[in-house]
């Protein structure tokens, strides 16, 4: 049983309309263009996400630093209040004399 050699390889026949070939070609180009746009958008989103993560990290560090400073100021205020109370007590004691 011999197989015809022309059946083993693909060839374009004149019966295939040019409009169909053009439509397939345009559709293929559109698919490539769409994939390139999706890839570009994903890369853009990934870059923005990395920037946002970095900003969140910096903000968290700044927030902790602010909390530390507030605690320090409160301690300072308490020390000043105690000193003022001592001065007030001393002044009131001298006035009583």
Could you describe the 3D structure shown?
This protein has a domain at 31-96. By secondary structure, it is an all-alpha fold. The mean pLDDT is 89. The protein is rod-shaped, with a radius of gyration of 40 Å. The N and C termini lie far apart (134 Å). It has one helix at residues 18-96.
Features:
mainly alpha, 97 residues, rod-shaped, single chain
Overall body shape: rod-shaped
Instruction: Please give the alpha-carbon distance between the first and last residues.
Output: 134 Å
- Mean pLDDT level: 89
Helix content: over 70%
- What proportion of the residues form beta strands (DSSP E)? under 5%
Class by alpha and beta content? mainly alpha
What is the number of E strands?
Answer: 0
Largest sheet: none
Radius of gyration: 40 Å
The quaternary state of the protein chains shown equals single chain
Helix count?
1
| SSE pattern | H
Pick out the low-confidence regions. none
Strands, helices and their partners?
Blueprint: H1 18-96
Task: Summarize the structure in short.
With 97 residues, the protein is an all-alpha fold.
